[in-house]
Amino acid sequence: MTRLESMLEGTPYVAYLYGYPHKTAYRPLTPALALEDVWAKERRDALFLYLHVPFCEMRCGFCNLFTAAGPKEDVVQAWLAALKREAGRVKQALGPATFARAAIGGGTPTLLSVPELETVFDLAADLGVDPRAVPMSVEVSPETVDAAKAAVLKARGVDRVSMGVQSFLESEVAAVKRPQKTAQVEATLDLLRSLGFPTLNLDLIYGIEGQTPDTFLQSLKAALRYAPEELYLYPLYVRPLTFLGKKSRAWDDLRLSLYRTGRDFLLAEGYSQVSMRMFRAKHAPAARGPVYRCQEDGMVGLGVGARSYAGDVHYSSEYAVGSREVRGIIQAYSERDAESFGEVRYGFVLDAAEQRHRHVVLSLLAEGVCPVQYRQRFGTEARADFPMLAELEAHGLARDVDGVFQLTAEGVERSDLIGPWLDSEAVRARMREYAWR
Prior knowledge:
The protein is of the alpha/beta class. It has helices spanning about 5-10, 35-40, 75-95, 115-125, 145-155, 170-175, 180-195, 215-225, 255-270, 325-335, 350-365, 370-380, 380-385, 390-395, 410, 415-420, 425-435; strands spanning about 25-35, 45-55, 55, 70, 100-105, 135-140, 160-165, 200-205, 230-235, 270-275, 280, 300, 305-310, 315, 345-350, 400, 405.
């Protein structure tokens, strides 16, 4: 039995792979690398700027994001001062650069006050990001965004707001330790829609304790009342050190059937499926701005918890989930001086084989692997470099569609198995060795 066949006999929910390699494969870089050297060979004409706000008003029971709940104002101010120092040092290292995309995420960016939000936007503008020229997305929450903060987003040219609703049923959000009131969610959505943001994205979760196909459909129908341009359906993952992770319960119950319920409903409502998680409405605006390809173009991450991709070096601050560890990392970041941000201390150096792995993994889980693009970039053939792709085809999980190797519907619903299956041996070994904290 092959490794793929063995995995197919188990759960289809192994891990959500949104980047490669996973952050648990990162390690201290000794000696540290100079920031100028890291970016020296990277193209800088189509970068992605990501600013991470590592604070939330509360921590949901399923959350393993890098965030601290309920920070005191002096902690936020110290973090913001360090963010300014980091942005200045990064701008110096990058030199002339053009950004094709930008996003402010977290955590919860709208936990910040109006002046603090304005400062974050000013930092992005100083680096060369003009939201009126390139797409910019900001995450909001119903508990923190109000008319004044939403007006800042609108005035700054944000064209996409994203909100993690998770469920429109209060009993379900309570089950994942999220004290959210549906009336507040609906009022926030009314506010965002009234301001005319071109793209509204809503996140929903399936697999919550007590959830059924009928209750999941209730949430989907409630979401569609606001005609979101994008919907993301996330399977519930229970990870180490989270509230749910400390409960002795297997969480695999109905996720696959709930996924199919949601997928079929949204397809019937005219949404197109972009990936396992993402669904786009017919009325969604066309992509604008320069072309950005995550497999090839770099990402500049600012803020503790953000990741940066500079060619063969991926780097970030250290990662943790436990509250004490997260707060300690934020404090250490806030105490750094400007020059220290010129050192890359923690990350992963991708050799030629890992760069090929990354291209194939990210391509396959999105639009598919294009042999021509792969050959142009690496000078070899994807099928020859990755004979394991034939296994996916043999199991009906992928096929050639007009010259592009794409996942089938059966493959898409197993994206969270296929992604980890494609991890290199070296990355898997590092992830196994990682000590959660």
